[in-house]
Design a protein that fits this description.
Length: about 120
């Protein structure tokens, strides 16, 4: 009887299973800097919640790339949001180090000493 090398099919299957598990792990699972509520919204929120977060992130990133100290948030993000969606925008602002103020129903973005650059 010849000794045959160990089968690699079980190893390949195990590797494939590990890759699938890694792909299914929630976004930013190990990132402690991002608010857990934002991670939950990204992973399990409605399409509208995700669209709002993407639009807010884009707008905040553009604001930080300018020299402006203060800028109004677009009306599409400042109006017509429910309380949960407003909270998401505020928490996203916190992650950027951006202060938000409300004047006459309009939300403004303001730089702080900790604003991302």
């Amino acid at each position: 009887m010849e000794d045959s090398p160990p089968s690699t099919s079980s190893t390949s299957t195990t590797d494939q299973q590990q890759q699938q598990q890694q792909q299914q792990q929630p976004l930013n699972k190990n990132n402690n800097n991002l608010d857990p509520t934002l991670i939950e919204a990204i992973n399990n929120g409605t399409i509208r919640d995700k669209q709002i977060l993407l639009a807010a992130e884009t707008e905040m990133g553009r604001f930080l790339s300018t020299d402006l100290q203060r800028q109004p948030l677009s009306s599409s993000l400042s109006n017509s949001l429910n309380s949960y969606q407003r909270m998401l925008v505020h928490r996203l602002g916190d992650s950027f180090g951006i202060k938000r103020t409300l004047e006459s129903g309009q939300m403004y973005l303001e730089r702080t000493a900790t604003s991302a650059s």
